[in-house]
Write a structure and sequence with these properties.
heterotrimer, A mainly alpha, B mainly alpha, C alpha/beta, A: two-stranded antiparallel sheet, 11 helices, 5% strand, B: 13 helices, 2 strands
Chain lengths: 313, 338, 406
């Protein structure tokens, strides 16, 4: 024994096994949701090399679109496709108006410009939608829940959301790795001029990628709206954590974002329910807010380019 | 770079402008309301903060997105150093606060400087967020409520000087001039750092780090030194920010403040010390102006930020300097032609 | 009437703008400014430092509306003085709190500073008003220190102290024989003080806290904590959440199947302003608060009608708090017949005032926090229906920590 007993970490044993399994499920499910939100970010980040702080705003935009469109069209099923179309159009316009001027610029200007966009979008949201909290109804078909223990249910909608996240992850991976478009996109992310000189309209490709990334964030917002409700500032809540996901996973890597997201989901989940005391100081759950960032720091020190990142970016 | 290249001529005009600004700052408290004296004090404090960040962003090429951490921690050091309802000695607490900030920058720097580019931006953010949550979630120093510093630091010297008090920080005019002196000292200090051999090495690192490394420079140490200097100066700014309004809060370490600081540096013109200071002044004036215009003033603020990022990549000062450079060049060619 | 107020505000704004622009110019020139500051007018200047942007914007607007309604009900003038408003957005950003409050006090030289919502920003304001002695009314922020350790003669509160709405709930739960309770809240000032208030009376009533659960503010990922609660099987759960977080919590609580299995209690903020958003997830949930929409008194009915007419909005608890801040100030002004220089007399009158509030009679405690009835409310349909009075004339937390200078 190197330390006297009082200095030994004290970790309260996790509760019974079924509860542990449910917590595991919670962690994975939260992770999948994080992946969904972060997927658009890793796309824009990895392929176009743009740091997009306004990503959270796009998430918020999606949630508000889901709210308005569900009210207008009567169902989330109709609101989703309509919302996707709208957000793709918005993405194309924003890329054309603003973002395309950033490609040749340093990351610094991207940080600055997209920081400004956060303020603009938040204020526009306030002007267009007001500052109330709104809710979106879970569609009838998915409103049920499965009973896990004698007093705990798991909502089907959450499971469906996890399913969508998995499908989307596979889809993204397939597009990027197995299609011609994906090949061009990947090539464009490595050497823009080379692709251009091959006669491919890289400007258009970038525009599409940006719109797709924005639409992914908005789609995440739309899907999350029924469980998270719709409220001012909701974008800022997810923004930083999404960056953590992308950076841990390795910028531009879909697999990395998936692993990073699930890691964060688990760390966040268990950080809140475990009790950890060292030398009489309660570290968990008291400092559970720190855990995610601590993990990020540790991973980046171990692998400075993230878990699945390539060196030299 | 284009802004700086023709600039060997600019310093003459630059020095003139600087002297005018300095004279204006020196005379200002004589003629205006208390509020404006306090406002400019705040602006000068933020200018020191922005200049310290500019050393990283503009001169070393390190985009730190967590610079508020060093600013805020120094504020907390002052809060800790001050016994309740009593003043902390300026001569003890200021060096202490700066040392803690510098030490923190050293420790964090050892870790974050192993990464570069986008990863560097994000890791600096991660460390700042960690510190933010430590102050936010524990009762270490008032938790989310923050803590008061009831009395401003006491400038009285020790027994050896008979307890002589050169100035009184409770007096807002004294505080103003103390901060002004610090602003000027910071400027001179950073100027000397940048013009020194050390400064040339970090400038080289900014342009091409691998080349500097192959030339035999231990670039990591240079970057670390730069990081520590910047952190220490940010600490000085944070110390006076906390002293001015007597209040520290976890959000003093938050990413919003780190973001604003980056904005100040770019708005004024990164890579020029005067630019960073100017950016701090402009940013706070804009806030004051827009607040008076409309309830939706954040829209104007956000719009201006977007505008600056798109249209003024070299910031206000950089753009003016470039324009001046072109004008001088044009005049030169006229002279040689005619 | 609202139009007059608008014009007034615009006039004031324009003047401020001229001043600001002038300052910008003069700062560069290093010239003097004194000539620009206007001669002290006969008007009473009220500074409204509230969140007009961001998450709490809705609350800021409701408070400002309520305050202006109360003042306009005093007739054309307030005890013979016209009222001029200076509004300032505090963005709910704590580092800016002291700075902005200072702007209202030293630049605009307001006679009364009303603000704010966010407790962190409030701490900054309290710092400034304690130093300057400017008359101050807190229309929402519940941070207990403001009328506790940091109390001062010029600081009043028209809303509540954080523990105040939670304290009666502890008694309600204990009286129902629910012995084992889990608490859950955000780990920040308001959450901690609410849980402390609940525990205070709940433990006195013989209850036992099985476990205190917390999550970092403003994290809204509740799933792991709900699982923990399900496995602990407590008799009841007490929570503190507000706004968007409250809406998400209520939705998650129902989706996890805990609704109807474990009784859920909270302070009223859990169900304020979110009923439309959460649908039937809030149905039947009981909370305690100092107001309820359906308080059946002539005063409340008249207030709700007047507010709806003036602003085309339904008032909420925040509007009431703003309204009462206005009434409190009016009581002080009337006592001195509009002579704002008699600050001591104004403060004495405000301390002694009995406000005829939409929520019932309100008086000021020794620490100048409201002594008020706490209602037990139950969500029925889209309404927080008042089902009874949980505690009458509650003075909480005890004024012991407040050493009021004479």
């Amino acid at each position: 024994m190197i330390f006297p007993d009082a200095f030994l970490p004290y970790l309260e044993p996790a509760v019974d096994f079924p509860t542990f399994l449910i917590q595991l499920l919670n962690g994975v499910q939260y992770g999948l949701l994080l992946f969904l939100i972060a997927s658009g970010l890793t796309l824009i980040f990895g392929i176009m090399g743009i740091i997009n702080l306004a990503h959270g705003s796009f998430y918020m935009l999606g949630a508000y679109l889901a709210f308005s469109l569900t009210e207008g069209l009567g169902s989330l099923w109709l609101a989703l496709p309509a919302g996707i179309v709208l957000s793709v159009l918005f993405g194309l316009a924003l890329e054309w108006l603003v973002i395309q001027r950033l490609y040749a610029r340093d990351h610094l200007y991207q940080v600055l410009l997209t920081y400004g966009l956060i303020l603009v979008f938040e204020e526009l949201r306030s002007i267009l939608w007001g500052d109330d909290v709104h809710g979106v109804k879970v569609p009838e078909l998915l409103a049920a829940s499965i009973s896990l223990t004698d007093n705990l249910n798991y909502p089907v909608y959450r499971l469906a959301m996890s399913g969508v996240c998995l499908v989307l992850a596979l889809g993204l991976w397939w597009v990027l790795r197995r299609t011609k478009l994906g090949m061009i996109i990947r090539a464009g992310s490595v050497n823009r001029d080379m692709v251009q000189s091959l006669g491919i309209d890289i400007t258009l490709i970038y525009r599409i990628v940006f719109a797709a990334g924005l639409a992914l964030a908005a789609f995440a917002g739309m899907l999350a709206a029924p469980t998270s409700s719709v409220f001012p500032g909701m974008g800022n809540q997810v923004l930083i954590i999404c960056f953590v996901v992308v950076v841990i996973g390795g910028i531009g890597s879909v697999q990395g974002a998936m692993i990073g997201a699930i890691l964060i989901g688990l760390v966040d989940t268990f950080g809140k329910v475990l009790t950890l005391e060292v030398a009489g100081f309660q570290l968990l759950p008291q400092l559970s807010g720190v855990t995610v960032y601590l993990m990020m720091a540790v991973i980046l020190l171990w692998r400075p380019e993230g878990l699945f990142g390539s060196r030299g970016r | 770079m284009s802004a700086a290249a023709p600039g060997r001529r600019a310093p003459v005009a630059g020095v003139a402008v600087l002297l005018v600004c300095l004279a204006a700052l020196l005379l200002m408290p004589l003629g205006v309301d208390k509020f404006y004296v306090q406002l400019v004090t705040k602006m000068m404090i933020m200018a020191v903060f922005a200049m310290s960040l500019d050393l990283l962003i503009g001169f070393t090429g390190l985009v730190s997105f967590g610079h508020a951490a060093y600013f805020g921690v120094a504020g907390y050091v002052l809060a800790y150093a001050a016994p309740q309802y009593q003043a902390a000695s300026l001569w003890v607490s200021l060096p202490l606060a700066m040392a803690v900030s510098g030490l923190l920058a050293l420790v964090i720097g050892l870790f974050v400087l192993r990464t570069s580019g986008v990863y560097f931006i994000m890791v600096t953010l991660a460390f700042a967020q960690m510190l933010y949550f430590v102050f936010h979630d524990t009762k270490l120093a008032g938790g989310t409520d923050g803590v008061y510093i009831y009395v401003r630091p006491d400038a009285a010297l020790g027994e050896w000087a008979g307890g002589w008090k050169p100035f009184d920080l409770e007096n807002f005019v004294h505080l103003y001039y103390v901060v002004l002196v610090l602003l000027v000292l910071t400027w001179i200090f950073l100027r000397r750092v940048i013009d020194s051999p050390f400064g040339r090495v970090i400038a080289g690192i900014k342009v091409n780090e691998p080349r500097m490394r192959s030339l035999g420079y231990a670039t990591f140490r240079y970057k670390l030194a730069s990081f520590v200097i910047a952190g220490t100066l940010a600490g000085m700014a944070g110390y006076f920010a906390a002293a001015q309004f007597g209040f520290v809060n976890p959000d003093m370490l938050g990413w919003h403040l780190s973001g604003s600081a980056i904005m100040m540096v770019i708005l004024g013109g990164m890579g020029t010390l005067g630019g960073a200071a100017l950016g701090a002044f402009m940013m706070m004036l804009l806030e004051l102006l827009f607040q008076g215009l409309t309830k939706h003033w954040q829209l104007l603020m956000g719009g201006s930020i977007v505008g600056v990022a798109l249209l003024l990549p070299h910031g206000l000062l950089g753009t003016v300097a470039a324009w001046w450079g072109r004008r001088v060049a044009a005049k030169d060619s006229e002279r040689t032609d005619g | 009437m609202p139009n007059d107020m608008q014009n007034d505000k615009k006039g004031a704004k324009r003047r401020e703008l001229i001043k600001a622009a002038g300052a910008a110019g003069l700062l560069a020139a290093g010239g003097g400014l004194t000539n620009l500051s206007l001669a002290q007018s006969a008007k009473v200047k009220v500074g409204l430092m509230l969140p007009y942007t961001g998450t709490f914007a809705q609350l800021g607007v409701a408070i400002a509306n309520g305050f202006k309604l109360a003042i306009s009900e005093q007739g054309k003038t307030l005890a013979g003085r016209e009222v001029e408003y200076v509004t300032l957005d505090d963005e709910s950003d704590p580092p800016k709190g002291a700075d902005r409050a200072n702007q209202l006090v030293t630049r605009d030289k307001v006679d009364l500073l009303v603000g704010t919502v966010h407790s962190g920003v409030q701490m900054g304001i309290v710092k400034i008003v304690r130093e300057s002695g400017v008359l101050h009314i807190i229309p929402n922020a519940g941070v207990e220190a403001a009328t506790g350790q940091l109390c001062a003669p010029n600081i009043f509160r028209s809303s509540f102290a954080n523990g105040q709405p939670a304290y009666p709930m502890g008694k309600v739960v204990a009286d129902r024989g629910l012995k084992n309770v889990v608490t859950l809240a955000w780990r920040y000032g308001a959450g901690e003080e609410s849980v402390a208030g609940f525990k205070d009376s709940f433990l006195k009533g013989g209850g036992k806290i099985v476990k205190e659960l917390w999550l970092p503010f403003p994290n809204v990922e509740f799933q792991s904590l709900l699982t923990e609660i399900a496995s602990l099987k407590p008799d009841a759960v007490f929570v503190f959440f507000a706004g968007g977080g409250a809406a998400k919590f209520l939705t998650d609580w129902k989706a996890a199947g805990l609704k109807g299995r474990i009784p859920l209690f909270g302070t009223g903020f859990l169900t304020e302003g979110v009923l439309e958003a959460v649908g039937d997830a809030a149905e039947g949930i009981e909370t305690t608060l100092h107001y309820g929409d359906g308080i059946d008194t002539p005063k409340n009915r008249a207030f709700r009608l007047a507010y709806a007419k003036a602003f085309k909005l339904q008032p909420d608890v925040y509007a009431v708090q703003g309204y009462d801040a206005g009434l409190l100030f009016a009581a002080g002004m009337k006592a001195v017949k509009g002579d704002i220089s008699k600050k001591k007399e104004i403060i004495a009158a405000m301390r002694a005032a009995t406000i005829d509030s939409p929520r019932g009679k309100v008086t000021m405690s020794k620490s100048q926090n409201p002594i008020q009835d706490m209602y037990l409310r139950k969500v029925v349909g889209q309404e927080n229906r008042v089902t009874g009075v949980a505690m009458k004339a509650l003075d909480y937390p005890p004024s012991g920590t407040c050493k009021m200078p004479a």
